[in-house]
Amino acid sequence: MTGPWVRRLANLLVAIGVIGAALGVLDFVNALTQVSASVKATVRVAPSGCCGDARVELPGVTLADGWLLPANGPDGLSASPSAGQLRIEAWGSTAPEQALANAELLVGGVGFLLGALLIRPVLVALSEGRPFRRGNARRITLVAVTVAVTGVLVPLPSQLAGLRIAQRTGLETELVHGVTVPLAPLLTGALVLAVAAAFRAGERLTRESEEMAADLQGLV
Amino acid sequence: MTEEHRVVCHLDRLLAARGLTLVQLSALTGITVVNLSVLKNDRGRAVRFSTLTALCDALACQPGDLFSVH
């Protein structure tokens, strides 16, 4: 995995990260200017008993067929269901609701940028044929942490926003209280940690072989 | 990683005393002329025991005659 295209890939990743983070900041700032306007967020829906269908009531309107049909209520409150989730939209948003509902791109973008900046020196070292350059294992470890933390954090603000909106609009009785933490990013992070461990072993072997070569210089 | 040392090789003196050249010593010991030259010019940083034994056998001397610490 050597050659100029690896270096170009590294630069491309950083560029995508910069654009993503910038868009995230713009989106976030824009959202904060929309306080009291409409806000959208996703909430999980569960039946109030042990099993069966969940019923969600909008103020003034009961969904005709459980939560499987989209519906519009008064005062601009609407809901769109999919696979146990409701994408709700409500007017009269508060600043925390807007901030949480629009933090996804910001968290994802900043996380991607951080990961891209960390992985760039590793890719550059790869392109120069020196994958086990000192510090690469530490960078990959930080990438693993970034992947895991970002992956877990990205969906959380939207869920928290959903809970706040549901509470404010009186929908909370049929909604799951709390948030769902995705586990897949943790597995991905663990996998990257394993790669970091392999790189750490490679760094140690490279260092030892360099020391051995230095010892052999001048040996007769 | 270069470590300073004060070991001096007296191969040139021993060669002169015995009327030998590096090429002849190389033939006697099996050590390459390049390596003998490294030793003679104090550019060596380490010596194998096998090299030392061969040199001492060929020059009929002890390691202390070959090296000293200044």
Automatic annotation (TrEMBL), chain A:
> Per UniProt, which keywords does this protein have?
Membrane, Transmembrane, Transmembrane helix
Transmembrane region positions?
12-32, 105-127, 139-156, 176-199
This protein is called DUF2975 domain-containing protein
TrEMBL record, chain B:
UniProt KW Transmembrane helix keyword: yes
Q: Which intervals hold domain HTH cro/C1-type?
A: 11-66
> Which keywords appear in this protein's UniProt record, sorted alphabetically?
Membrane, Transmembrane, Transmembrane helix
Q: Which SUPFAM superfamilies match?
A: lambda repressor-like DNA-binding domains
InterPro entries, per database record: Cro/C1-type_HTH, Lambda_DNA-bd_dom_sf
Asked if the Swiss-Prot or TrEMBL record annotates the protein with the keyword DNA-binding, the reply is no
Residue spans crossing the bilayer: 20-39
> What is the protein named?
Helix-turn-helix domain-containing protein
